[in-house]
Design goal:
Blueprint lengths: L1 E11 L2 E12 L5 E5 L6 H8 L7 E10 L2 E2 L5 H7 L4 E4 L3 H4 L6 H12 L4 H14 L5 H4 L9 H13 L5 E5 L7 H18 L2 E6 L2 H7 L2 E6 L2 E7 H6 L4 H8 L38 H5 L5 E2 L6 E2 L10
Parallel strand pairs: 3-8, 3-9, 6-7, 7-8
Antiparallel strand pairs: 1-2, 1-4, 4-5, 9-10, 10-12, 11-12
Length: 320
C-alpha cells in the first residue's frame, strides 16, 4: 500500500481544515506498521481516507492511494464497496459504536461475508463460526445468536477483528483498537493481531498514540505531526536514534521504572489546522527551531539506509 502526496481537507464553519497535507508513505505486504502521533494529528483521517470512509464534510483534495499497484483515487462508491472487506478492512476504535445493536453478532458477520464472497447460507455460517473461534471467542455457536450489548468490551473487539478478517483482506487498518480496554485485555488483543498477521500474511496498519504499544508489536513506525509525516523508520532504529525533535519529545515523555528525573514534555499544543503556521508546522513548539523553519516546509529525505527518513531542516543536505 502506498500513499502519494495525499491531501485531505474538511469544511467547517470556521474555514477549511487541512488535516492531511502531502502525506507520503509506503507499506510492504505483510508488514506491521505503526502510525503514531498526538490526538488531532490526522492518524484516523488517514485510515478513513484510504478506505474512502470520510464524513460528508471531508474530501481528498489531491494525491493518490495505491493498493498493490492499483489506484484507489478514482474509484467510485460501488467499486470501493467491493474493495472494503475483501481487500482492505478497518477495525474501529470503539466496537460498541461500530456494532449494530439491533442485529445479532451472527447476522452482522454473515452480512459481511455474503457481500464479499459467493457462499451458501450454510457455508457462510460455518465461516462465521470459524472466525469467532479463530479470534479466541468462547462457544462460537452460543455467541452467534447474541447481541453486542451482551458481550464485554474485549469480546466486542474480538468480534470486530473477526468481522475485519472474515474475507481474508490484504490490509487491516486498526484504529486505536485497544484504547477502551484494560491493560490485560489490551495485551491479549495485540498478541492476537500479531498471531493472525503471522498466520495470514496480511498487512496491519496500527494507528495509536502509544509508543509502548508500537515498540511491542510493529516492524516499522511512522511519526505524524499536524497532518504531515515527521519521521519514519524501523522501530528499533527510531527508539535508539530518534532524529526529529518531535520524536525525541514523544520518547522523552514515556515513563520508565528506572527513571529518576522528571519526565520531559513538549510545550504548547498541536497547531490549528484551519490556519496552520508557515514553514514547519512544529516550529512554534520546537526548542531547536531556526529561521528557515518559520518560512520553508522541510522536505522528506533519506537519512541513512533508505529505511530511516526524516522531514526536518536540521538534517537538510547542507547541514549533514
Amino acid at each position: 500500500m502506498v500513499l502519494k502526496d495525499l491531501h485531505t481537507h474538511f469544511s467547517t464553519y470556521e474555514g477549511t481544515a487541512r488535516v492531511l497535507e502531502g502525506v507520503n508513505l509506503s507499506m510492504k505486504p505483510g508488514e506491521f506498521l505503526g502510525i503514531v502521533g498526538e490526538t488531532g494529528c490526522g492518524k484516523s483521517v488517514m485510515g478513513l481516507s484510504i478506505l474512502k470512509l470520510l464524513p460528508r464534510n471531508g474530501r481528498i483534495v489531491s494525491g493518490d492511494i495505491f493498493l498493490k499497484g492499483e489506484s484507489l483515487g478514482d474509484k467510485g462508491e460501488g467499486e470501493m464497496t467491493r474493495i472494503r472487506g475483501k481487500r482492505a478492512s478497518m477495525i474501529f476504535q470503539h466496537p460498541q459504536a461500530s456494532l449494530n445493536p439491533v442485529f445479532t453478532l451472527g447476522e452482522q458477520i454473515s452480512a459481511v461475508i455474503r457481500n464479499n464472497l459467493s457462499l451458501s447460507r450454510r457455508e457462510t455460517k460455518a465461516l462465521a463460526l470459524s472466525m469467532f473461534e479463530r479470534v479466541g471467542l468462547p462457544d462460537p455457536s452460543y455467541l452467534y445468536g447474541k447481541y453486542p450489548h451482551e458481550l464485554s468490551g474485549g469480546m466486542q473487539q474480538r468480534v470486530m477483528i473477526a468481522l475485519a478478517l472474515s474475507c481474508s483482506p490484504e490490509l487491516i487498518i486498526a484504529d486505536e483498537p485497544t484504547t477502551a480496554l484494560d491493560v490485560t485485555i489490551q495485551a491479549q488483543i495485540l498478541s492476537l493481531m500479531k498471531k493472525l498477521r503471522e498466520e495470514t500474511g496480511m498487512g496491519v496498519m496500527l494507528i495509536t498514540h502509544s509508543m509502548g504499544v508500537v515498540a511491542k508489536t510493529c516492524d516499522r513506525i511512522v511519526i505524524m505531526y499536524a497532518g504531515q509525516v515527521a519521521e519514519s523508520g524501523g522501530v528499533e532504529e527510531i527508539f535508539k536514534n530518534p532524529l526529529h525533535p518531535y520524536t525525541q519529545g514523544l520518547l522523552g515523555s514515556i515513563p520508565s521504572y528506572t527513571q529518576k528525573q522528571r519526565l520531559s514534555s513538549i510545550p504548547g499544543s498541536i497547531c490549528n489546522l484551519i490556519n496552520p503556521p508557515g514553514g514547519c508546522r512544529f516550529h512554534p513548539r520546537c526548542s531547536r527551531a531556526m529561521e528557515i523553519c518559520r518560512s520553508e516546509k522541510p522536505q522528506d529525505m533519506e537519512y541513512t539506509n533508505g529505511v530511516h527518513r526524516i522531514s526536518c531542516h536540521l538534517y537538510s543536505e547542507e547541514r549533514l
